[in-house]
Amino acid sequence: MTSPEPILSINDVSLVFGGVRALSDVSFSVQKGELFSIIGPNGAGKTSMLNCISGRYHPTTGGVHFKGQNVTGMKPNARAELGIGRTFQNLALFGHMSVLDNIMVGRHHLLKNNFFTGALYWFSGAQNEELEHRKFCEDVIDFLEISHIRKATAGTLSYGLRKRVELARAVALRPDLILLDEPMAGMNLEEKEDMARFIIDLNEEWGMTVVMIEHDMGVVMDISSRVMVLDFGRKIAAGLPAEVMANAHVKKAYLGEEDDEDDSVSGKVA
């Protein structure tokens, strides 16, 4: 029986900035419904990979395919329209806007009106459309348990709550694939537990495929379907969480332990 086509395929992607090689011939795939984590030491190329997937960067060589379509040359907004959402390692909220308005921004790709049809559309259906989008945003707010801050100015919130608002904005797009760049960075234990629960529910109940960068190995091991490890821009391991953490190359990258020169990289690209 043949395996279903992956929702995301990364084929021999390399990324070079001047003389710096951020990624070197990285290939992997993600199946629909997976919670796929990318880990590695600082500077390993993790965020560069997410940027190649979302369209902020275009690979120097190699290709990115999403739902069977080559999106390598597409801009970020075009990929968002296809169903790719993301959060950022450094918060990218509009600090002067309310929580609800920030989340509504995540729906703008789904609006039907444009410059040429806007005036006519306003009278024919824009108000109903706005109500529909606002209702969905309210559902996201309830899901992420931030109803109590829905009218608050985003810039006045604690770091943990702002991270949750940024997740809400990405979820508001209702993406098929959501990219999470260190969603739990800077959080305390209780905040991490809440965020992990939300990510699991997005994956299992909302049906979103997740590609996540995260440094908390406890979280990664607990919630991931599969894990890939990058080191100096190269993939050194991929597979089930337990297999990856037992890999000698991974131990060397994280702990400086010596590995056997003949050890094989665990896991196979699906």
Automatic annotation (TrEMBL):
Residues 8-257 form the ABC transporter domain. One of its GO terms (cellular component) is plasma membrane. InterPro entries: AAA+_ATPase, ABC_AA/LPS_Transport, ABC_transporter-like_ATP-bd, BCA_ABC_TP_C, P-loop_NTPase. Keywords: ATP-binding, Nucleotide-binding, Transport. GO terms for molecular function: ATP binding; ATP hydrolysis activity. Pfam families: ABC_tran, BCA_ABC_TP_C. This is ABC transporter. It comes from Thalassospira mesophila.
